[in-house]
Structures are given as C-alpha cells and as structure tokens.
From TrEMBL:
Taxonomic lineage of the native organism: Bacteria, Bacillati, Cyanobacteriota, Cyanophyceae, Leptolyngbyales
EC number assigned by the record: 1.6.5.3
Keywords of this entry: Membrane, Oxidoreductase, Transmembrane, Transmembrane helix
One function term, GO molecular function aspect: ubiquinone binding
The name this protein goes by in its record: NAD(P)H-quinone oxidoreductase subunit D4
Domain named NADH:quinone oxidoreductase/Mrp antiporter transmembrane: residues: 122-415
NCBIfam families per the UniProt record, alphabetical: NDH_I_M, PRK07363.1
GO cellular component, one term: endomembrane system
Places the protein is found: Endomembrane system; Membrane
InterPro entries, sorted: NADH_Q_OxRdtase_chainM/4 (IPR010227), NADH_UbQ_OxRdtase (IPR003918), ND/Mrp_TM (IPR001750)
Membrane-topology descriptor: Multi-pass membrane protein
Pfam families hit by this protein: Proton_antipo_M
Family classification: Belongs to the complex I subunit 4 family.
One biological process term in Gene Ontology: ATP synthesis coupled electron transport
Amino acid sequence: MLSTLIWLPVVGALLIGFCPEKRSRLAALAIASLNLLWTLFLLSRFDVSNAGWQMQEALSWLDSLGLTYRLGVDGLSLPLLALNSLLIWIVIYGSSQQMVRSRLFYALTLLVCGGIAGAFLAQNLLLFVLFYEVELIPLYLMIAIWGGPKRDYAAMKFLIYTAVSGVLILVGFLGLAWLSGASSFDYGAINTQDLPLKAQLILLTILLIGFAIKTPLIPLHTWLPDAYVEASPPVAILLGGILAKLGTYGIVRFCLQLFPDTWSIVSPGLAIVGVASVLYGSLTAISQKDIKRMVAYSSIGHMGYVLVACAAGTELSLLGAVGQMVSHGLILAILFYLVGVIEAKVGTRELDKLNGLLNPIRGLPLTSALLVLGGMASAGIPGLVGFVAEFLVFQGSFSVFPIPTLLCIIASGLTAVYFVILLNRTCFGKLDNATAYYPNVTWTEQTPALVLAGLIFFLGVQPTWLLRWSEPTTKELVAGLTIGASQQVAIRDGSQLSAVSHQRSAISGQLSVVRTQ
C-alpha cells in the first residue's frame, strides 16, 4: 500500500521516456494525479488516535548488511507525504507547456517524488539514506538544464553540499549501528541509551550537521540562495517546498527521537542556531532587490522556527514544528509560483522595475491579489495557515527558551516588514507607465496558485485538519524524552521545575483551544 507512493512515480518516470514529447506533460500529470489520489486514500485510512507506525510493509533484502525494505507511516511523516504529493502535482500542472526537453523534466520530477516519499516512509536507516540520495542527481540536472544564467555554478554547489550532507548522515548511521551493537539498521533495532555520553554527542553532532545542510540552517546555508534563485520556479518549489523538509524531518526522526537523553545537552545550542537563522533570514531578505531572492532568504528564517521548536521539545512546540513544515511548503510554493508568473509576464523580478501590478490596468490583478495573500500568510497574519504554526511554536517554546522565543517573535515582525516592502513596491506602487498592460494570466496558469491559496486559507481557519494527524505522535515523542534530562539546562531551581510541570499539565488544554480556532 505504501510502496505505491514510491514506485508509481518511479515506474511512471520510466514510462514517460517512451511517450511522445508533446504527450509527456499529460502523462506526467496523470501519474501525479493518481499519486495524489492515493495519498488522499491513505489519509482516509490513517488512524489519528494511533501514535505508532501504521500500514507497515517489510521485505527481506540484504539481511547480511542489515538492509531491509521496511516502510511505515505515522503522524510525523504523513503530513509531509501529503505535501510531497500535492506539490509534485502543482509543479507538473504549473510547468510551461512550451518547456524544452519536457519529457526529461517530467521524468526527473517523478523520480524526485518517489525518492522523497521513500525517505519519509523508510523505517530502515540505510534505506532512508538510499532514498535520501535518489533526488540528488535529478535535482542537479533540473537546475543545470532549466536554470538561470548562473545555473552551472548553482547546480554544482547544490550537488557538493547535498553529497556532503548524505555522507555525514551515512557515517552517523554506520557509527550508530556499530557502537550500539545493533544487528540491523531497522529503526526499532537502534538503541542509543547504553552508549557513552561522549559517543552519543559525537554521533548526534554528525547527524545534526548533515540534516542542517539539507534544511538549510546557518552557517551551512550558502548553497540555498544560488540554487533557489537560479532554478526555474517549478524546481524552486521542489527545493524549498519539499526537499528542505527532509532536513527538518531528519532532525526530529533521527536526532531528537534516537538521542532523547543527549538532546537536552545540545538543545540550548540548537535554539541559538535556530534564532540566528530566523534573524539572518529576515534581515537579509529585507535588503534584497530581487523578489525571488527575497523569498529564498525568507525560507531560512522559517526553517529556523522549526529548529527552535525541536530544541524546546514540548508537545505544543513539536506539533508546531510539523505544522510549520507543512505551512512553509504551501506558502513557499505559492510565492515561488507567482514570482515565476510575474517574471514570465512582466519580464523582470527587480523590485525597482515592478509597480502597480494590482491595478487592473496592468492586467495582473488576480495574480497580485494571490501574491498579497501569500505574503500575509508568510508574515503570520491570523486566519491563514502561517499564523497557526508560528503560534504553536512560540507558545510551546516560550516556557523552555523564553529569550530565543522572544527573538523569534521579533523576527516574525521583520518578516512582515520585508513582505510589506515587496507588496508595496510590486502591487501597490505608483504606476510609472499608466499604459503598460501585460499579457493576461490564463485560468490554467492561475489554477495552481488558487489551489494553494485555498489550502492556506482553509487550514488557517480549520487548523484541526493540519494538526489532527500529528498530535498523538508528538505526544509520544515528548514521552520519549526524559523530563529531567530535557529540562536540565533550563531548570536551575525548584520554582522553575514547578513552572515546567505546570506547563506540561496545561498542554492538553492548550491543544483543545487550538483545535477550536
């Protein structure tokens, strides 16, 4: 059942190689639609009251190496699987029908879809690494072939950073299995609690660096601006909307969950890195003149929220982290897509050359209105999905890391600043040429943005549909953390211990309030 999400797009990618060039988009869209429908079917079969693995599949493969084909889904991976299937459909539907070498593009897109789904489903560490690396070459080619003027440099930089990330994760997993004496790389067979503290810290650090590169977080982010900006809008959606989530997913799944005792030692440092990423992303975005580069830097900040939430390790913060991963994927996708539409119609992404796009005289009123919605969602305006996720992150993290959380709240205000700058100049600016009329955006071109906008609004007013899948899993994650160890850095006296205990007892009530919003 779960294997369908992997092998349907992979087999579809191979079949597209035999399709006529003119029919490749239609064939890829049909496969992506089937994949999305199957994901919706799995959502309907998922037991939201069960915190454990569901719909598991297991096949013997290379038992001598500890590699088995073992799949499973839980409340952490299911929302990200749904995001993957949706954005793959958006990428294929929203791609240009005049794209050169379209057959190769769609085949590579489907390979990325299958690889990322496999990584989210893998219950074997080596199997995870295998799927984790599947997307490396396809995305390198997609940047190098369909990218901008500096695409070769951006693609090579992406390749190097991503390869290093994969090597570090593989080394960490090999060391983990060897030192723990596990006979298999299956997720359930790994136990770190008997390892010396020093060994745990070394292994955890290696894995954190590997996943931080993929996310990316500062100071390991330098591949992101080049890759996101030089990539075509559909590829930028893949990079920021889906690929970055592999990094944050790995931090929760393999770092926090496998190293519960050691997590409290590194969590203060992670909170600092998260806050630094948030502030850096926001401040750097403000100074950008290219709207695509501005959106790219905003991604660093939003991933920083996820790291702060993971460092706090409370039920609310982890629930917010999952929500932030999904909401960021939706928001980044609509922003990159609309930036691509504007560039195609107007011919530029420079803020100084864009003005008055919301005015009907320009011919882009709906596109501009959707851009305003995307900017508001990214800024965390209430009623939209971005607010729900950020609220949970801040609420859940404050009791553990009050100062970093306050800095994140300040940074969220900076997010509003740079999106006000973007929207004021592009959508509301004074017309420099009242007669300039740009080509109409067809309804076919508007459809991906309308779908994303609908989800951004719906999940903002009905957050239960965003959170219900993950709530039991996040509770289990927190239960796996030793309360004394998880708070040993923050707790210095009995009054703080009392405050933490009070916060723990209030979590269930806070979740109920969030669900009724």
